[in-house]
Amino acid sequence: MGNPILQFGTSRFLQAHADLFISEALGAGDALGTVTVVQTTSNPESRARVDALRARARYPVRIRGLRRDEVVDTTIECSSITEALDANTDWPLVRERFARDARVVLSNTSDSGYACFHEDTAESLAPGARAPRGFAAKLVVLLRARFEAGAAPLTLLPCELVSNNGDTLRALVVGVARRWGADAAFLRYIKHTCVWVNSLVDRIVSEPIRPVGAIAEPYALWAIERREGMVLPCQHEAMIVTDDLPHYERLKLLLLNLGHTYLAERWQTDGRPADENTRSAMRDRALRADLEALWRDEVLPVFDALGKGAAARAYLDEVRDRFENPFLDHRLSEISKNHGEKKRRRFAPVIDLARELDLKIEQPRLHRSLRASVPA
């Protein structure tokens, strides 16, 4: 019998996140089982990772950073992945694993992972057909195979950084299935028998270890929205099952991401050093004081009004450690990419929430930053 966890994507992020959690849980007897990983692209680095995993199922994850002001620098051998497949060359075996063995499906596909392609047609459902290009189309083929093999339930737990990623992926899959002429019974299976779970993942995985492995910060989060009937791949201290996933999304967006974008705003407007990173910015007393004032006076009152002030302050302690990671060269020049859009997505919601909650706070830094033009 094959592995109960089937994972689409070989990214270094998953190696240092879900796969590492499963590996650690296996040692404690808290995992569903081991993982079959499937390469979904033709990327040469992905192919090298698959080859390395086939040659040696273990790989290193080096954890480097700060945790409660203490330096962490340790390497963990991860052993959760015991089978590595390529969707382009091993598609019949992928179909078999999906149809008969999988109980949980994880994914972290490329930036275009949720894209749909005109070249993917219902001909992909035919026996012996090649794998379709799009991930949603791949899932339609695989879910059809599982449906025809007995329609066993399945939990799908996407890890892409897309809001409501489970619901979004389900809608895409249903859309492809309908375009391909799916019958009502199969559509019911997709929509109601399978469990599509929204989740939020958070961990900075800064570098690969080639050919397989990763370097990551100590902080890690996998917030999973509770769904009836869902099966989890493991239990782990970094995993939180919640009825309030938007709370965790707000923490990340309005404290971590907002802090990054405000430092990038100051980097641009002040003409700061080209190679400045988050750690050096946090060590500038005046800039650090300004960022702390932004969090304290313009953002935390919103969380207080939502009844989440204590959680926000605890999360902010983690954010400070992450920003001051001595091993991470997270440059403000990189953070400033797509700066105008990031400001709108990260600053405007705080202002809107303050207005909705009828808070009497001025939020001058946020307003000033939103008014400022973005350099070409």
Walk me through what this model shows.
With 376 residues, this protein is an alpha/beta fold. The protein folds into 2 domains: 5-243, NAD(P)-binding Rossmann-like Domain (Rossmann fold, 3-Layer(aba) Sandwich), CATH 3.40.50.720; 246-371, N-(1-d-carboxylethyl)-l-norvaline Dehydrogenase, domain 2 (Orthogonal Bundle). It is built from 15 helices and 13 strands. The longest helix is centred in the last third of the chain and has 25 residues, at 245-269. It is globular, with a radius of gyration of 22 Å.
Key terms for this structure?
376 residues, alpha/beta, Rossmann fold, N-(1-d-carboxylethyl)-l-norvaline Dehydrogenase, domain 2, six-stranded parallel β-sheet, 13 strands, globular
Describe what is shown at a glance.
The protein has 376 residues and is of the alpha/beta class. The chain has helices at 12-16, 18-28, 44-55, 91-101, 135-148, 165-179, 184-193, 245-269, 278-282, 285-305, 309-323, 332-335, 339-346, 348-356, 364-371; strands at 5-8, 35-39, 59-67, 70-78, 81-86, 104-107, 155-158, 195-196, 199-202, 205-208, 214-216, 221-225, 239-242.
Task: Show the helix and strand layout.
Layout: E1 5-8, H1 12-16, H2 18-28, E2 35-39, H3 44-55, E3 59-67, E4 70-78, E5 81-86, H4 91-101, E6 104-107, H5 135-148, E7 155-158, H6 165-179, H7 184-193, E8 195-196, E9 199-202, E10 205-208, E11 214-216, E12 221-225, E13 239-242, H8 245-269, H9 278-282, H10 285-305, H11 309-323, H12 332-335, H13 339-346, H14 348-356, H15 364-371
Parallel strand pairs: 1-2, 1-6, 2-5, 3-11, 6-7, 7-8, 12-13
Antiparallel strand pairs: 3-4, 9-12, 10-11
Helix pairs in contact: 4-5, 5-6, 8-10, 8-11, 8-13, 10-11, 10-14
